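During the no-cost extension, the postdoctoral fellow (Dr. R.K.) reprocessed legacy sequence entries with the updated structure-token encoder. One reprocessed record is reproduced below for audit purposes.
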Amino acid sequence: MQSKILVSACLMGHAVRYDGRAKPLLHPAIETWRAEGRLVTICPEMSAGMTVPRPPAEIAEAASGEEVLAGKARVVELTGADVTEEFLRAAMNAVALARQTGCHYALLIDGSPSCGSGFIYDGTFSGQKQAGNGVTAAALKAAGVEVFSDRDRTVDRTYRAMSFKRHGRRRTDGR
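Re-encoded structure tokens follow.
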């Protein structure tokens, strides 16, 4: 049986982002995985009861999702409201869904304080990016799920990695 792939709902065209929009990822790999029945869709924030639209949120003080999970940082909205508990619940929901459905991979939207896996914003709401993981991405990685971002080169790399693993071949190219 092929491993399932947990995918950010906004990447699948669902209007669940904080601003009420979707950010569909159009890539041949998505269509292949969809046809194979491998995609499991989640919006972690919505799974935790957050509404759409909602105020933008960032991990405060240039911290990371790992620090939020460790209780050393918090997630705040532009309004100043602390939404750390909601983001922690969202992350735990995503981990539970990945386990229940056999997802060994996750394809998440970058930049999100929940799903970011290459970059997140620095907590100043100024548009400043920094390397790091969102809360859900960090929780999935800690649970052993291989996390990839929605950037095209990363999707290509994900597709190649899964093709090698699916066919039982060992990678020899060092990636």
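The beta strands are 4-8, 39-42, 57-59, 75-77, 103-108, 119-121, 129-131, 146-149. The two ends are 24 Å apart (CA to CA). The remaining legacy entries will be reprocessed before the final report is submitted.
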